Amino acid sequence: MILPSLILVLIFCYGPMMGIVIAFQKFIPTKGFTGSKWVGLDNFRYVISLPDTILVLKNTVFIALMKIITGLIVPLTVALLINEVLHKFSKRSIQTLIYLPHFLSWTILGGVLIDILSPSVGIVNSLIKAIGFQPIYFLGNNHWFPYVLVITNVWKEFGFSTILYLAALTSISPVLYEAAVMDGANRIRQTWHITLPGMRPIIILLATLSLASVLNAGFDQVFVLYNPQVYESGDIIDTYVYRMGLLSAQFGPATAIGLFNSIVSFILISVSYILAYRFAKYRIF
Q1: How far apart are CA 80 and CA 18, in angstroms?
Q2: Taking every pair of C-alpha atoms in the chain, what is the biggest distance, in angstroms?
Q3: Which listed residue, 58, 71, 102, 183, has the most CB atoms within 10 A of its CB?
Q4: Which residues contact 130 (CB under 8 A, 6 or more apart)?
Q5: Rg (CA), the chain
């Protein structure tokens, strides 16, 4: 049963890794891997010397960290609120509604968000103009664009993490709440002393595993929503590699950036799994 999946992984994940050699070559497609000139670390030096590299790295880390923080706090808060809903039909309806955006691609959501945030006909700017303020070009303003990425990412993905937290809540014994009520604890006290400690393992697990995403700010979302006006604040490593490698045909430097990103991500993934095992006893094997 594992064999078909293993074959796909070998073909699409491990097979393309042969292209890493491009990072150390002045790659010319017509000459291939064997005919292109070997330049050693020149591509890495060239990338480091570019003024945009540091800016792109800062944008990537900032956007990714904001997504990680909001991706932990918002689902936890929503899960605690849903847990207080007593009516089962209402609770399940809310869970379904917040979970639906997770299944939609950014290609679809991007078009929806472009219309919603349009400075001329978008519903958001229509409300802003209705209360007497000037419309805001959210997708063309370097100040607003990173926060638009974070907020829309939370809206799309927080439903999935909320389900995980709600599943963790079911493992907490009701006897603890009954004992707390007998001792006179209100709902806030019960949440602080019973609910949150009971959810601590899953909170620690998701927090540590999210460390691996520090250099992954979401290529598909940024690619769909950004434009040249917001390169200063919205350009990330993945989109930078795309433009440099595919649009500018600088294959060597683009591969060098991608390889650097992969190495750092591998280190972060290793650290996150070590921390997950140490604090939450989470193991892959």
Answers
A1: 47
A2: 79
A3: 71
A4: none
A5: 23
Give CA 43 to chain center in angstroms: 28
- pLDDT tens for each residue of 34-83: 888 888 889 999 988 888 888 998 999 899 889 989 988 999 999 888 88
- Output the CA torsion 90→70→276→202 (10° steps): -20
pLDDT at 171 > cutoff 90: no
In terms of residues, how long is the chain?
Answer: 285
Q: Which residues pair with 37 in a beta bridge?
A: 26
Question: What is the distance between the alpha carbons of residues 27 and 248, in angstroms, rounded to a whole number?
Answer: 13
Neighbour-count burial for 86-113, b at 16+ CB within 10 Å, e otherwise = eeeeeeeebbeebeebeeeebeebbeeb
> Reduced to 3 states, what is the DSSP secondary structure of residue 211?
helix
Q: Is 134 exposed, middle or buried (0-12, 13-18, 19+ CB in 10 A)?
A: exposed
CA dihedral 170, 176, 181, 182 (to 10 degrees): 150
Give the residue ranges of DSSP H helices in the chain: 2-9, 32-35, 42-49, 51-83, 88-99, 106-116, 123-130, 145-169, 174-182, 187-190, 196-209, 219-225, 231-234, 237-242, 251-280
Residue type, 101: P
